[in-house]
Amino acid sequence: MTGSLNMKSTQLDGGFLGGAQRYHAPVRRLALGMANWIAVLPFFMFALLFLILPTGFLMVGAFQDPQGHFTLANFRDLFQPGVLDAYWISFKVSAASAIGGAVIGSLLAWAAVQGRLPAWIRPTLMTFSGVASNFAGVPLAFAFICTLGRVGLVTVLLKKYAGINLYSTGFSILSFAGLTLTYLYFQIPLMVLIVTPALDGLKREWREACDCLGGTSSQYWRYVALPVLWPSVLGATLLLFANSFGAVATAYALTGSSLNIVTILLYAQIRGDVLHNQNLGYALALGMILVTGLSNGGYIWLRARAERGRR
């Protein structure tokens, strides 16, 4: 009799606890979901305040005149010779620094990953790349002026010990070549950081299979490695292009107004000097957003393609 009562009590307790667990499970899932959303709330707030709202403000202002009336004159002014020249110079600087950074950065990453170098080379290169890829703005411009300016360290050493007057060749740190060279300082490390995981994704079995089938090293890179790597390399090049196209602090601190790139022209329109046309500045910024957005979109698409290819 006592055993039967204990069994019934256990069944009742089990049923009660099971029902309680089934009742509390949705509550726990709801609480966990709310906690997850609260955790990502700062990201959405940051995106709203510093990306979505400013972009919307630019889009509205680009279609307004100083009195707030609707107009398309700002976009018509984008086709003025001075504005087109600024876009063209920015395009050339961005393309040159992106291609140069992609080539040199890819070779550096390949040497560190695939080359037979000492083990300490790769972590040292990656550490330097992580720091140098974020070194820009006024400090970078000052560093290059001190290094390659008219009285910079390298300029003086070349003239004193090698008899080479760098500035007699037409070079200037304030020119197109000087700005491109300065941009390469952070473009090359950024390329190293982006393309290294793609090189790590090349499986050793692919190279061994090529060797077993009698393939040469050039055939391996032509028919196996490069078809796998090209989406990553091309996507990273587009990202480098967007990275340099939107840079303003380094260019302004280095060249001032001597090199008319679109970011400096935009700054001149916004800050309120004699060229002040705030709404034209909004249209300039909208054009830059379009260019960098297309570049970043191409990078995202190519990165997804590269990931599918590695799988």
From TrEMBL:
The organism's place on the tree of life at top rank: Bacteria
Membrane topology label: Multi-pass membrane protein
UniProt key word Membrane: yes
Name of the molecule in the record: ABC transmembrane type-1 domain-containing protein
Pfam families named among the record's database cross-references: BPD_transp_1 (PF00528)
Claim: Transmembrane helix is one of the keywords in the record: yes
Organism annotation: Paraburkholderia nemoris
Xref: PROSITE patterns: ABC_TM1
Alphabetized Gene3D superfamilies for the sequence: MetI-like
Residues annotated as transmembrane: 30-53, 86-113, 125-153, 173-199, 220-241, 247-268, 280-302
Primary location group: membrane
PANTHER family: INNER MEMBRANE ABC TRANSPORTER PERMEASE PROTEIN YDCU-RELATED, INNER MEMBRANE ABC TRANSPORTER PERMEASE PROTEIN YDCU-RELATED-RELATED
Keywords, in A-Z order: Cell membrane, Membrane, Transmembrane, Transmembrane helix, Transport
Lineage: Bacteria, Pseudomonadati, Pseudomonadota, Betaproteobacteria, Burkholderiales
Compartments in which it is found: Cell membrane
Annotated coiled-coil segments of the chain: none
